[in-house]
Design a protein that fits this description.
binds adenosine-5'-diphosphate, alpha/beta, binds magnesium ion, about 150 residues, 7 strands
Length: about 150
């Protein structure tokens, strides 16, 4: 487990960028972002995208559930899911239905589908300490994120 605090949105984006750099050569990593509205999940995701070489602007996919981004060299993919508006998943939510290849998969509001989450993931809990301070608690389950959490 690794704990980091940030003191501005820019610092949160930078932390995401460093994580993206550390993960960009992994074949597949699922990153679960847990935290209330305004915690900084999307800000952190923007940084991850930059770290893996994505130059497109990353916006919250609130109305589409999933947005897919390719790096400028088309070698890396980031899938960004926001499950905030997902209501009735019943018993058939399948993350793989949204993912058509390998890459970095970032999920906001992952506990909406708690029983359907994969066994390997990087859980990032973001706690709002004040208007500008955030606490990031990073916990890796499985192999793909081990090195990143060690070195970040
Ligand atoms: N340390 C910080 N890290 C991230 N965001 C911060 C921080 N301090 C203030 N903010 C503000 O909090 C908001 C975070 O929004 P966003 O990333 O969309 O959150 P979420 O996706 O979790 O709802 C932004 O308005 C940002 O400017
Ligand atoms: Mg968001």
């Amino acid at each position: 487990m690794k704990i980091k605090n940030t003191y501005s949105a820019e610092e949160t984006e930078l932390l995401g960028y460093e994580l993206g750099l550390l993960l960009k050569d992994e074949r597949k990593v699922v990153i679960l972002l847990d935290g209330e509205l305004g915690a900084g999940k999307t800000t952190f995701t923007k940084g991850i995208a930059k770290g893996i070489g994505i130059t497109q602007i990353v916006n919250s996919p609130t109305f589409t559930i999933m947005k897919k981004y390719l790096s400028a060299d088309r070698m890396k993919t980031m899938y960004h899911l926001d499950l905030y508006r997902l209501d009735h998943v019943g018993n058939d939510f399948d993350l793989e239905e949204y993912i058509d290849g390998l890459g970095i998969i970032v999920v906001e509001w992952p506990f909406k589908v708690e029983e359907f989450l994969p066994t390997d993931y990087l859980l990032v809990k973001i706690e709002k300490i004040s208007d500008t301070e955030r606490k990031f608690i990073m916990q890796c389950e499985g192999i793909p994120c081990k090195r990143a959490v060690q070195f970040i």
